[in-house]
Design brief:
8 strands, alpha/beta, globular, 245 residues, Rossmann fold, eight-stranded mixed beta sheet
Length: 245
Amino acid sequence: MANESRPCPCDIGDRFDYGGRGQEVQVEHIKAYVCKPPASTDKAVIVIHDIFGWQLPNTRYMADMLAANGYIAICPDFFVGQEAWKPCNDWASFDDWLKTRNASKIDIEADVILKYLSEQCGAKKIGVIGFCWGGAAVHHLMLKNPLLKTGVSLYGVIKFFEDRSSLLHPTFFIFAEKDDYIPLEQVTLLEQKLKQNCKVDYEVKIYPGQTHGFVHRKREDINPQDKPYIEEGRKDTINWLNKYL
């Protein structure tokens, strides 16, 4: 039984009924979902899942959207076989669960996927996007990995890396105005630190009236008031990738 006294913002939204247009592959020790565009390209995007894992239909929907916009999209299992979080789990155990899935401990997997994209897919320009836990992972990679060209962090958990802002690559940060998990004060502080320390292009954007997960966890057809912002978030993501890849 879930602990209702401590609801998680990641439960807000919808689980898409979506099968996916890509295929699952094995890349060394990592399982991954890959979707390729109709025309050949040397541009690729790594998609980093949220706490619900690489098989969440919503995340595959986003990967397919990237492919439809001309990118090789790959969503690896960054939990590397460990179970993803389930909404029915007891939230009282969430902190212990999270300790074994550190968003800054993904460098080995990132390097494996980068090698695969380069050698097996012919990718020469590679970016990364991520949601929630994955958004924090994007923040980490933008601070550290020299092989990536750009990143989009969608409601990435700021507190994981709040003291680090010397980005290596252009990074776009998407946040929701009514995110119960990422207070606007944290977003303001992030902006201040980026302004002080960041030498590359960046943007921090807050979407009015939106809640955590809105870009990939809300169905615009049943949330009409949110539709413009959901579509804007997706379009902004594509535009940023187009600019830097």
